[in-house]
Amino acid sequence: MNIAAQIGQASFGERAARVAAIARAHADQVDKEGRFPREAVDAMVVERLLGIQVPPSHGGEGATFSDIAELCSIIGQACASSAMIFAMHHIKLSSLVEHGPESPWHSTFMRRVAGEQLLLGSATTEGGIGGNLRNSICAIEVADGICRLEKDATVISYASYSDAILITSRSHKDAAPSDQVMTVFLKDQYTLERTHVWDTLGMRGTCSDGFLFKGEAPAEQIFPSPFAEIAAQSMLAASHLLWSGVWYGIAADAVAKAQAFVRAAARKSPGQTPPGALRLAEISNQLQMVRSNIIAGLKTYEDAKRDHEKLSSMGFAVAMNNIKICSSETILTIINGAMLICGIMGYKNGTPFSIGRHLRDAHSAQLMISNDRIYGNTSSMLLVHKQDTSLLG
Amino acid sequence: MNTTIRELLSKLGNLPVAVDQLADDADLYTAGLSSFASVQLMLGLEDAFDIEFPDNLLNRKSFASIAAIEATVEQIIAGRKVA
Asked: Do A312 and B59 touch (CB under 8 A)?
């Protein structure tokens, strides 16, 4: 049986588990050296997981956000950097899937992503915008059917390893900062000059260096929909939900380690409840809360997806913001609890109970779109949006 | 109503362009209306017309242009008269 046929018969979960096994084997080295998780990403390509979100009509497998969030969690339990790269790729792919069918070029490109398992990168951050991705300083110039863009991108995750970069800019040189478009540039259509080095506390394998990006491509590669719509209708929800999938995975693995630690202690002294057992019950409760919150968010998204008015409503934006806040804050409490349970064995690197990498990776969650910015955004919406007080919504 | 909307937009919209230069159907987001300013504008409209925006009208489309805002406000006022 050839590999393609084997993959065809395996579930998404089985394929992601094989990727996770490879990611886990290299996770510590990726973290220590701050290097790209080549082995795990190659495994995603072999398992053909980079194109699953593309509809079958365009050569993909029509995976839903829920399917993909589950895979983010599976890989996240092994190596958070690998899972975050997988999540960020699918966040960009969601823009293509939702807005690509509007244009022949983007439709064809979507088919290529599925067929050739291309890795998509993202450049939404820019020096001087203060972290607000709904503002751009740089502007795309279009002349004679060619578009040109230069952007001081302070962060482009795995830029050196992407096959294409989806990049935001103002729509023309006189446009307001919020009048943005997104453009796909293929690897041979841009140059990258490194300006910042990604030497960080955690998520070290995402290699999110800063670059001066210079690109030139046919103008048809600009998305026809304004970026404001892409952000509201696919990107923000995709980010909060898929990131949350990764974060849940990190916390779930930490809880699994803490549980193994408590069980080992219980076996050593039968008849006595180990000291960490109560705290384990506590973090298991918190983990369930995070999980329920993400599941509810995925359901809200899948329900709203059929209704574009709902997707761009305030109620939906508030719900997605709250999911991001909950998962990014709560995982820190959970992983810290796991560390308290495992004690010095959790604090030390290289033990079966090491949790240092989890804790460091998890600290990125509240900063990827700063929670303070999200709270500010929600608080402004709550001035006019009336909360839905029903239990089931 | 159009005049009141324009006055509020000019006071609260924080737009980089002059409001009297905008056509009724000009896209306000393209003109630079931020999400924070759009909330301020909604609050101003609620106060000026003594209305409350129901959640199903709190979306980008309802505030996409001066004409869209006018239609949205009229719809709410008409609904109130029926009720």
From this structure: yes
